[in-house]
Amino acid sequence: MANNFDGDIPEDIVREILLRLPVKLLLQYTSVCKTWLSIITSPDFISSHTHRALMVSLIDPTLLAIRGVDELIISGVDELMLFSRARGGLTNNNNNNHSNTKFDRLVVPHLFGIKPLVVNSCNGIICLANLANQNDLVYLWNPSIRKCRKLPDPPRRRSFRFKIGFGYDSISADYKVVRCDYDYDYLRYFEAKVHVYSTNADCWRKIRPNIPLEYQRLGRANLVVNGVVYFQDNDELISFDLHKESFGRIPLPGSRRLQLSYVLDFEGAVAMVFGYVGDEVGAHLWTLDDVSGQLPWTKRFSIDADMDSGLWLRCYLRGEQFCGRITNKKTYDVYNILYNYKKKETKLYRIDRDDSTVLTGMIHTETLVSLGGFEQLE
After folding, report:
1. 24 lies in which domain range?
2. Number of domains present in the structure of the chain
3. Three-state DSSP class for 55?
4. Is 304 exposed, middle or buried (0-12, 13-18, 19+ CB in 10 A)?
5. Average pLDDT of the chain?
6. CA distance 70 to 81
7. I need a labelling partner for 209 at 20 to 30 A (CA). Which of 49, 67, 125, 353 fits?
8. Are residue 45 and residue 57 in the same domain, yes or no?
9. Assigned domain for 256 exists
C-alpha cells in the first residue's frame, strides 16, 4: 500500500484521523498496513494520542471502580470496572437500580497475585501491589494494550506496615513509585524508611526523608496532583514531590471538623470536603492554594448535604459533578451518588446488599503508553 490512504489522503491527514480513535481500534489498525503500523507505534504519535486522551478525559472522565474491597482495611481487588458518561455509566438510572449502569470490565491477571492493591492510575498505567506477599511485588500495567512489567523487588521486603504512591514526574518524563516502610518492635513503630523506584533508572533508591515520618495507616496514596503525591493522615496531609523527591506536611483547615471526602483533585487543585468546620454548620469544599509558599486552605463553596446522611465524596468528575456514596441511616440502604454542586442535584444509584462495588477516586484514561521492560500478557 502506498504511503497514503487509498492513494488520495496525505499521511498527515491519516495521522490526524487516527489520533481521534480509541486504543482498541488503533491496535486493530496496526495490521492494516506497514504505514499505519509505523504511525501508530511511533513515540510521537503515542505522545500526541495520550495528550489528546487526557484532554478528553477532562470533559468525560472514566472512573475506576473496584469490586471485592473492604474499603476500611483495603483488602485488595477481585475485579475492576470502568464507568464513564460516554458509555452510559454513571448516568443510567433505570429503575433507580445500580445494576443497570453500564461499564467495561477489566480482567486482573492472576500474575498480580490474590486481591492486589490498586495504588493509582496515571496516563493509562495502573500500579498494583501484591498484598499476598506483604507488598513485596509491584507491577505497572496498561490494560488497554495488555502489557505490564514487574518491578525489581523492593530493598526492604516484608515490612510490617507501609505507604505507597505512584505518579508521573513530567519534568523528568519519569514514572515513579514511592514506598514508606515502618518496622515495629512490639512497643512502638520506628520512623519510616523510604525508597523510590524510577522507570528511567529501573531501580529502587533509598532516600532520607527531609521531615520526620511517623507511623501512618496502611494503604495507598490518596491523590497525585501536578506531580505531587498526597497521603492523608488524620489531621494533616503528607506530600511527596515526585521530581524533587522531598516531603511536606500540610495541616488540615479549621477545628471540630468532620471529614466528608477523600482528598480530591478539584480543577487541578487539592481539595477536601468538611462538615462543621470551625463555628460554621454545614458541609464545605476547601482547596489548597499555594500563595507565596504558605499553602493556605480556602473555603470555595458549600455542599448541599444532610449531616446525618452518611455522605462521603470520593472523586470530582469535573462538569460540576462529584461522585460518592451515601447511606440511609434509617434503612441502612447504600447508594452510589452523583452530586452537581451548582445545581444542588443528587442522583442516587441503589447498591444491592450483595454488591461490593466501590467507586474510587481514581480516573483511568485508555492510552497506548508502553514503558521499557513491558511484556505482553497472555
Report:
1. 11-52
2. 2
3. helix
4. middle
5. 79
6. 16
7. 125
8. no
9. yes
